[in-house]
Amino acid sequence: MSGHGPKIPMTSHASGPLSGEAHVPGDKSISHRSLILGALSVGETRVTGLLEGQDVLDTAKAMQAFGAQVERTEAGEWIIQGVGVGGFAEPDQVIDCGNSGTGVRLIMGAMATSPVTATFTGDASLNKRPMARVTDPLALFGAQAMGRSGGRLPMTIQGAADPMPVRYVVPVPSAQVKSAVLLAALNAPGQTVVIEKEATRDHTERMLAGFGAEITTEVTEEGRVITLTGQPELTGQTIVVPRDPSSAAFPVCAALIVPGSDVLVPNIGLNPTRAGLFETLRDMGADLTYENPREEGGEPVADLRARYSPNMKGISVPPERAASMIDEYPILSVVAACATGVTEMTGVKELRVKESDRIDAMARGLRACGVQVKDGPDWWSVEGMGAGNVPGGATCETFLDHRIAMSFLCLGMASKAPVTVDDGTAIATSFPIFGPLMTQLGAKIDTAG
Ligand code: S3P
User: pTM above 0.85?
Assistant: First the structure.
């Protein structure tokens, strides 16, 4: 939803040990894809563990607007009656994707090869984000886009009535762009080839195969070459959404920096295209273990155990790891502030075009909390102050970005003075139970009003 209520500030205070189990919500990326592929299938798709964050709820509404039946049966349990590949109806209202770049970009892809026209909008954050990265490849299929200057929302897409398959090299490391092209390719005849130079999260490829599409991935010198045969009949599936490693990052990192903590975060997907943060934390010397490692639904899963780690050291994060932890740099920078030595993060230009400019948002707030940060167009570095030494005591602006809000609230739990965020409302987009879950572990968080 693009309408915003009033800002609601939140404050976190130095907290006692965090302990217990943190049951984080379902994976946001997989939740969006379950709804969209369910809508593009024939028959019924049943989803359990769906993230009921605002981003995903907006995608559910959009799928209804394109003609699918989407129904919530109980908490986290949803049933979708799909319309089949090429079966999208023309929505009679503007599609409002709220705060969600994933939602809008994937849905634009899914409708771009059907003879329907749809207008998309979002909130103040989404309406600033670049869409040409998606509409450029969609134009190759024959879709036409008309938006605001700079390729921004609101934007109308006229789907191609007679789509052609494409061969596309994704110019930025983006799973959203790759996925938009693959979803568009579903209704184009023949084979579409998408090439990515750097591996990004592969949930779309895995799920397309699960729904019955013919899709292959070959690792070549050019990169990952993904070939999809168009116009398959996708069949409704049963999907169990794993818990989100990007949400798990918050209780894990908070436990590492709050004295005396010992937190178990069960059932976290450790797909290698998503698990970069946990490897990085271990490289820094974090006491983070993977317990009970197993496979579920073709994905590696483990229970994460994080214990207070006062001796972590800054490192240079390998740039080739960036895509596998792209959403986790804000919370990593908080851990880096509580470690000793400098943490360097390079090859992270994409952070500048997320829900906010995440390098800028974190650098401003960390500096206000007494931490030294340097930054350039595609890099930044944080000077660690050592466990327990971050002054805090500031109000940090969150720019409608859920991960910025949660990161600063975690920082306040380990700082000398409380840390306030100007607005915690965006947290509901991905992790609606963040406040109560962290409080139950022992965090001291106040919400204004
Ligand atoms: C996502 C891909 C990433 C990530 C976003 C979710 C996805 O964006 O930041 O939160 O589900 O495909 P980019 O593809 O723009 O890197």
Answer: yes
